[in-house]
Amino acid sequence: MKIKDLEFKKLFTEKELLKQTQVLAKEITQDYKGKQPLLLPVLNGSFIFAADLIRDLKLDPKVSFVKHASYSGTVSGGQLKSLIGLQESLFNQDVIILEDIVDTGLTVQKVIEEMVALGTRSVEVAALLFKKKASPPAYKPKYIGFEIPDHFVVGYGLDYDGHGRHFRDLWYTSDQSAA
Ligand code: 5GP
């Protein structure tokens, strides 16, 4: 399949993605039994993964959609700098960040550090995809749907230059110019 200038091949079907999402939901349900975790899906890429995962949880979670700030402002005093949109207090919360993909782990690591400083009870990350790299990641999520080769992927919520978020399946290109 071609998107703009690049050729993409299928990595996982929607059925495979859903099956693995259910596995993650089961694991999270067991680990958080008796708790009310605060789920933070990080937009835009995680919206489909989050919708599927959350509906498979046998819990009563709180959900608040957030977004990475494109820059770190000078706001201080108990505020999260690297995410925007958060309405809830994080104090004493069991937070689960929902990410579409973790690559180097640097982005999510920074977010976790800020959350811990705000007094969370616990912070974990559930990522649908985790890229296998030659060098160790800055952070490896506890909950991972698939470990994938270091290729650029699109579909199931993830985009390539504004295209492809709506694809049901997940596609990859080995063309390095996509990243
Ligand atoms: P990290 O800080 O872990 O290196 O970067 C993670 C972010 O990079 C993800 O949240 C996502 O926005 C973007 N990203 C990394 N790899 C891919 C990819 O293969 N496809 C898409 N669409 N985004 C990616």
Overview of the structural elements:
The protein is built from three helices and twelve strands. The chain is an alpha/beta fold. The protein has a single domain (about 15-150), classed as Rossmann fold. The strands form three sheets. Strands 4, 5, 6, 7, 8, 9 and 10 form a seven-stranded mixed beta sheet that branches. The radius of gyration is 16 Å and the shape is globular. The two termini are about 20 Å apart. The protein binds guanosine-5'-monophosphate (5GP).
Please tag this protein with its features.
179 residues; alpha/beta; Rossmann fold; 3 helices; globular
Proportion of residues in β-strands: 25-35%
Alpha-carbon Rg, integer? 16 Å
How do the SSEs run, as a string of H and E? Answer: EEEHEHEEEEHEEEE
* CATH-scheme architecture: 3-Layer(aba) Sandwich
* CATH T-level topology: Rossmann fold
Oligomerization state: single chain
Low-pLDDT segments: 72-76
Share of helix, binned: 10-25%
Summarize it.
By secondary structure, the protein is of the alpha/beta class. 22% of the residues lie in helices and 30% in strands. Helix 1 (14-31) crosses helix 2.
SSE blueprint and pairings:
Elements: E1 2-3, E2 6-7, E3 9-12, H1 14-31, E4 38-43, H2 47-56, E5 62-63, E6 66-68, E7 83-84, E8 94-102, H3 106-117, E9 122-131, E10 143-148, E11 152-154, E12 170-173
Parallel strand pairs: 4-5, 4-6, 4-8, 8-9, 9-10
Antiparallel strand pairs: 1-2, 3-12, 6-7, 11-12
The structure holds guanosine-5'-monophosphate.
Guanosine-5'-monophosphate is lined by residues 45, 99, 101-107, 152-154, 158-159.
